Amino acid sequence: MQSTWSQSEVFNWLQKYNVTGPRYTSYPTVPAWSESVGALDYQKALASLQPEESFSLYFHLPFCEKLCHFCGCMQVITTDHSRSQDYVKKLLQEIALVRKQIPQRLAKVEQIHFGGGTPNFLQAKELKNLFEGIHQHFKIEDQAEIAIEMHPRTSTQAFCDQLKELGFNRISLGVQDFDPKVQKLINRHQTYEQTKDMLDYLRSLGFTSFNFDLIYGLPGQKLNTWQKTLDQVLKLDPDRLAVYSYAHVPWIKPVQRSFQDSDLPNPETKLKLFEMALKTFPQAGYELIGMDHFAKAQDELSLAKKEGSLHRNFMGYSTRAEAHQIGFGVSSISYVGGHYFQNQKQLPDYEKSIQSDNLATFRGCLLSQEDQIRRDLITQIMCLGEINFKDFEKKWSLDFKKHFASELKQLEALQQDGLLEIKDQKINCTPIGQLFLRIIAMVFDPYLEKIKTQAKNPTFSKTV
Ligand code: SF4
Fold this sequence. Notes:
Layout: H1 7-17, H2 39-47, E1 54-61, E2 63-64, E3 76-77, H3 83-101, E4 108-116, H4 124-137, E5 139-150, H5 157-166, E6 170-176, H6 180-186, H7 192-204, E7 210-216, H8 223-236, E8 240-245, H9 267-283, E9 286-289, E10 293-296, H10 300-307, E11 311-313, E12 316-318, E13 324-328, E14 333-336, E15 339-343, H11 347-355, E16 361-366, H12 369-384, E17 386-388, H13 389-396, H14 400-403, H15 405-416, E18 420-423, E19 426-429, H16 431-435, H17 437-442, H18 448-454
Parallel strand pairs: 1-4, 1-13, 2-3, 4-5, 5-6, 6-7, 7-8
Antiparallel strand pairs: 8-10, 9-10, 11-12, 14-15, 15-16, 17-19, 18-19
Helix pairs in contact: 3-4, 4-5, 8-9
């Protein structure tokens, strides 16, 4: 990928395309969902599943000891570790409740992901209890990917030992930025040495697959210190990297007012920070995956990209496209039978539902055939950066140019600006278009206009 652009090119793109827009981890996006979709709809979707279908399970573990000032996640800040014990009990109840709705004798699981919050807030024995509950109700496949997000500062060796014993095989570490000044501004203190020690210990246990999360656009980030972080990351040799754009939405996340707006890099610098990642990681042998992930050439993600089977969901890019996703825990999202469902977003509401033996669904989205078509198209743009008209027509029995006549017209302007090329019955995103995939996807999203008109404040973060 080209990673050096002239100042005037950058200026032009930023002027036009640094607008607010969704990240498309779902389509339709969450603001288009409705609270008229509830537990009964979720129950129906679960009951309609066929015996051969398999699952991907997500567990949301919301507790964190300290609040990071950039945080956009659903978390509960506490140092009271007894709280997770009761939460695990609720998760076990929820597993049993959900499982009751699934008619299959064997509910095969090919992926489990523990996200947060800070999943390693849990005690090792709590994680073990949770795992026993999963085993009791689901059949975890031998080749299943079992992943967990971890915070190196609060992780213990006992917890790592437990992960090994339970069969975890993918570890995702939150790194964000190693620079102490940035860490002070974002209230996340975590030295390079702490991260390295934890990684060394996990490697000594036999773990071989590591993902790092980094964020560009954080307060205090400078080009030279960011380059140092990127070089330090390379020394630690992760297999995958997610390099997220910091989403500044203080009207939704007031904690982001803990620093001054003037501490944030301006859009030109922010794009430059990402450009540095785009240069550094491919030079070290990583491939760009979708919009903001990198993976070693032999990693499953890189292979899935080559085979065209890459997928996108709430956990980022994934290779498990076909599995139904069941979310457990407060605020978690499920995608079952072609529809989205979300659990209660506040912990007391979630706990109350589960306590009274009810599914905790509070909103969702039942997708029409047209939604499914556009969801597939947007996923292809976000994952592969290309659309092959003939393949798409075959899959959905439609005439691409007729069906998307007005969108193709709108794409002409993006083509003129060098973001994509339309020729030989294909749309291909260019290297710069790869950075603005959200802008290209937005053309195919008919809900956007209504969402923007109805919202009092911007609903989405800026694309850069
Ligand atoms: S550890 Fe993660 S979830 Fe918790 S406050 Fe920090 S960014 Fe948010």
